[in-house]
Write a structure and sequence with these properties.
About 55% of the residues lie in helices and about 0% in strands. With about 160 residues, it is mainly α. The longest helix has 17 residues. The radius of gyration is 17 Å and the shape is globular. The N and C termini lie far apart (about 50 Å). The relative contact order is 0.11. About 10% of the residues have low confidence.
Length: about 160
């Protein structure tokens, strides 16, 4: 019974009808681990390639919504950022997808890394100022985590 619930929920994810950046990320993010789960149980082997194609399509579509400053538009064709929460969430997905071997363009990763402050324009190490309340970055712990995930931890 539990196996059928997992299959139903994965089908629901894949067929979710909305296409904003948050929903695309929410559809594809759990599927990053679906193949590993399938290989461990031996039950999803026939879906592994379809899952890979779905994830890669999500990566490609999200990268098309990345703006020059490394943020992400909520909808395709928009020229304004969907905000820090959305950009951090999509960045997290792209970093994980890259780590797991999906083809994430290097320029997209570079923009993510620069936006997170892990490198500045001159390529120097970034720093999250901890002397303040970090009011300007309410999710600063998440930023630090994403920097580490990007291979550029804040060591200062």
């Amino acid at each position: 019974l539990e196996f059928r619930r997992v299959l139903f929920r994965s089908d629901y994810l894949i067929n979710y009808p909305y296409g904003c950046a948050e929903q695309m990320t929410s559809q594809a993010f759990p599927l990053l681990y679906f193949k590993d789960m399938g290989l461990l149980t031996g039950r999803f082997e026939d879906r592994a390639n379809a899952v890979d194609m779905f994830i890669q399509t999500a990566v490609d579509n999200l990268c098309k919504q990345q703006l020059d400053d490394g943020t992400f538009a909520l909808w395709a064709g928009e020229t304004e950022s969907g905000g820090d929460y959305l950009s951090n969430y999509v960045s997290h997905f792209l970093l994980e997808a890259n780590r797991l071997g999906y083809d994430v363009p290097q320029d997209a990763l570079d923009k993510v890394t620069q936006r997170l402050g892990a490198i500045d324009v001159q390529g120097q190490g970034g720093r999250l100022d901890r002397r303040k309340q970090n009011v300007e970055l309410p999710d600063s712990a998440y930023i630090l985590y994403l920097r580490a995930l990007a291979g550029k931890p804040d060591l200062q």
